[in-house]
Amino acid sequence: AGSASVDVLNANADLTAMVGEPMLYDDFLIALMDLELGGIDAVLIDSVVGNYYISLMEDPDNYFVIPEILQAEEYGIGFRKGSDLTAVVNEIMAKHIAAGTLDALAEKSG
Length: 110
Fold this sequence. Notes:
By secondary structure, this protein is mainly alpha-helical. It is built from 6 helices and no strands. It starts with a helix and ends with a helix. The relative contact order is 0.10.
């Protein structure tokens, strides 16, 4: 199985040159803990996942997430089959699409 982070690193020669040989982790939290302990200098992680895990750390202010987008990814919203939320979210999304505000909302939300 591959990693989106490794794909991003391999697709960005300048970043690869700066980072050198990456350390690969099976768990984001372990990678962040190694960062905190000084075992590594940086973690390449999806910003949504990274920000979530950083919020769980003892001192989240010790971390900085760069604002640059290295690679855009598409996300979906999943619901349990038969969930009442499906219709609600579909309606909200349809309203934003019709109003032309979905892209601005996505940009604002990061």
